[in-house]
Predict the 3D structure of the following.
Amino acid sequence: MTPPPACDARFDVPLNAWVLSRYDDVYAALHHPMLVAHGSSALAHAVHRETRRTMTDFLTHDHLAAWRLSIEAMATERVARLPAHGTFDLVADLFVPWSRDVASIATGMTRELADALAPVARDVYLAAAVSTDGRPSAQAQQSTALLARALAEAPLAHSCLADVQTFVALTQSLPATLANMWHLLLHDPAPYTALRAAANQSDAKWPAIIAELLRLAGPAQAIFRYAAAEITVGAAHMQPDDDVILMLAAANTDPAHFAAPQQFDVTRNPSAQLALGAGAHRCAGAALVHVAVEVATSALI
């Protein structure tokens, strides 16, 4: 899906929300401490900070290296099962089952339990996908509670990885992101050629390649926040409780920040893209996402 073009900050009356899509505005909003997620509370903020700290402690080089070896073996095995002739469905035959493998390893639950909980996680994922204000629906809240109870009994329940957000991200967002990326790869020879070269030469450009794929085909079009105080971001002067929509995909293709934004270019600054958020609103498991995307893409290439 091609994102809408970046434009000046505006208040959208039908949505009753500020819409920010220029890179500079979205970047500033992601770093603003008074733009918070719906459902936030002092306790939620404390838990969020503790989760981020624990994730940082957990995602050391050694942990990531060991985790990578496990998911690489599963990716290689899954790719080997694909038919050498005829057609197959990349999403159904590879990305979805392998992502559940990854979630099973990360949380310590059995693959059978991961399969059983995946439809519940999909309820949460789809509710977020169709939301126009970021507020969880009653069904999503029920599904989240069910997942939380099940994950609390997983072997790694003490770990920050055994939480609802991680499970939903790995079983739902990860295969969707891989699907977005491969849709791009199968229609544009430039990134595919770069990936083939990197895979054949153990190229050090992998981080830049993955960052550029995330910029052009990241997991989210937009995220939702609200103003916890009267604040100004760019040209948007927000009142307390104003809803704010941050158009991540539009910001990632803003021509004011990225030259020739629709072109795949591994010479860009890899840290510039906002597909996984930024600042305090950066995805706590961003390192996991980068490794998982590189492993799946490398195995398939």
User: Anything to note?
Assistant: The radius of gyration is 19 Å. Residues 41-48 have pLDDT under 50 and may be disordered. The first helix runs from residue 23 to 30.
